[in-house]
């Protein structure tokens, strides 16, 4: 494997820097420290164990509440094609996907002969919560993250939702199937043009209420309403959530989400999702406040220069940039854009807080061993 600038020596990492959350573990198998309840949560342990299995890694301290871990990856375990990760709780399934997707993309053994056979896809069965607080809901993964990373970076994976599951019971199940990439790198992304909104979409999982949807749509009327709305609706008796998104003429997808909460009325939940979407539309960037940090690792792994125009830089993005830089040697540059009118078109940034995030990726590649 061409590991370019990737670290091969033992690297001590201080996971209390920046956001200091589970995101740090997912990026570089570090630790979450700057939290009210520091140490590993069960869902982080499940993620670590999954990656430990993929890499046949040496893992020490991989237990709940641990404040220090040692992780040393070895060869990819190519004798297993289906891995299983079960949070045993309503731990987020999508955060398990966040930790396992990059390693699975580069998990194929290097081809040994000139005769090139595509590697078999890897499957992971994931169990836990499909929409939980402070994590991507599964619909964000399928409707926003997947189409953007597949198009921008040239990778492929499939996600099948077998069952949805909510806090506190969990019980959700998702199958992830990843096509490992061999003999090529990820291509660099170029998300700089926001374009005009051409479509709104919404995905609703609800146990009872139509009010939730109506409230969200009412809120959306304040921005624009003469466009097609694509609705998907699912019924489940375990919980509800709503994902709204806007699609633009240049192919950007921008989301707003809210989860059911006993303390909130359905109107309030619908309104929150719409407010989040409107906030993310108004800044004029090409991604919402969540996709922003989720693209950083792929930008660093791709071959060549990636550009991303986004709204205000989140603390998750700053954390992702810091740890990705430490692990890969890639340098990110963030420039404030004073005027980017030609790219913002009808949706001008409210406060001019548009930023360009750039980096020259390392072009990680699994190459032939001849
Ligand atoms: N509504 C949402 N839509 C899409 N992505 C989301 C949403 N809410 C949170 N995320 C993403 O979930 C990830 C959360 O990372 P974070 O480190 O905060 O989580 P964590 O593992 O639960 O850690 P901790 O428990 O320490 O907070 C980030 O990548 C963030 O962008």
Automatic annotation (TrEMBL):
<dbReference type="InterPro" id="IPR020719">
    <property type="entry name" value="RNA3'_term_phos_cycl-like_CS"/>
</dbReference>
<dbReference type="Pfam" id="PF05189">
    <property type="entry name" value="RTC_insert"/>
</dbReference>
<feature type="active site" description="Tele-AMP-histidine intermediate">
    <location>
        <position position="316"/>
    </location>
</feature>
<dbReference type="Pfam" id="PF01137">
    <property type="entry name" value="RTC"/>
</dbReference>
<dbReference type="InterPro" id="IPR036553">
    <property type="entry name" value="RPTC_insert"/>
</dbReference>
<feature type="binding site">
    <location>
        <begin position="290"/>
        <end position="294"/>
    </location>
    <ligand>
        <name>ATP</name>
    </ligand>
</feature>
<dbReference type="GO" id="GO:0003963">
    <property type="term" value="F:RNA-3'-phosphate cyclase activity"/>
</dbReference>
<dbReference type="InterPro" id="IPR023797">
    <property type="entry name" value="RNA3'_phos_cyclase_dom"/>
</dbReference>
<dbReference type="InterPro" id="IPR013791">
    <property type="entry name" value="RNA3'-term_phos_cycl_insert"/>
</dbReference>
<dbReference type="InterPro" id="IPR037136">
    <property type="entry name" value="RNA3'_phos_cyclase_dom_sf"/>
</dbReference>
<feature type="domain" description="RNA 3'-terminal phosphate cyclase">
    <location>
        <begin position="29"/>
        <end position="334"/>
    </location>
</feature>
<dbReference type="GO" id="GO:0006396">
    <property type="term" value="P:RNA processing"/>
</dbReference>
<protein>
    <submittedName>
        <fullName>10129_t:CDS:1</fullName>
    </submittedName>
</protein>
<keyword id="KW-0067">ATP-binding</keyword>
<dbReference type="InterPro" id="IPR000228">
    <property type="entry name" value="RNA3'_term_phos_cyc"/>
</dbReference>
<feature type="domain" description="RNA 3'-terminal phosphate cyclase insert">
    <location>
        <begin position="200"/>
        <end position="282"/>
    </location>
</feature>
<dbReference type="InterPro" id="IPR013792">
    <property type="entry name" value="RNA3'P_cycl/enolpyr_Trfase_a/b"/>
</dbReference>
<feature type="binding site">
    <location>
        <position position="98"/>
    </location>
    <ligand>
        <name>ATP</name>
    </ligand>
</feature>
<keyword id="KW-0547">Nucleotide-binding</keyword>
<dbReference type="GO" id="GO:0005524">
    <property type="term" value="F:ATP binding"/>
</dbReference>
<dbReference type="GO" id="GO:0005634">
    <property type="term" value="C:nucleus"/>
</dbReference>
